[in-house]
Amino acid sequence: MKLYNALLNFYNLGNDNDMLKKILTGLSLIGLLQGCSTIGVDQMVFTNGMVTSARGGYAFEETPMKKIKQRDSLVVITHAKWEPLTSDAGRHAVNWTWYMDGKVVAIRKQDMKFAKSPFRLFWRLPAGDFDPGHYRVEVSIDEKVVDTLEYDVVI
Length: 155
Description:
Blueprint: H1 2-10, H2 17-35, E1 45-54, E2 67-69, E3 73-81, E4 90-100, E5 103-114, E6 119-126, E7 133-141, E8 144-154
Parallel strand pairs: 2-8
Antiparallel strand pairs: 1-3, 3-6, 4-5, 4-7, 7-8
């Protein structure tokens, strides 16, 4: 109540309680809406998904590959875009699920902040964790599959 009276005096609204109530209600609603501004996965566009490899170090180039050598690191990359470009899309649960012959062989999960569009999400792991063969990896965000990629691990 002290804050309410202080605001009345600051804005020199005197007894105009209705006006101040309307202003404070409007500001509260704006604050609530801003807190709920997460952009959903259905509002995003996913492009340029690829599997590539990296050797040594952490750096990798975005060059799509269909064959990954076991001695290298495997990198799964997916790009997301949303409008407006400068908006924060909030936090989302991202899962990468690898399959061989229809069976799940690996799952990786990460809660990610989608800070600015366009956004690149990726997961990197040793290709040596996989036996030679054909694989499919599904990328899902908030339990919705947004990208599916296939590749082979070779010796």
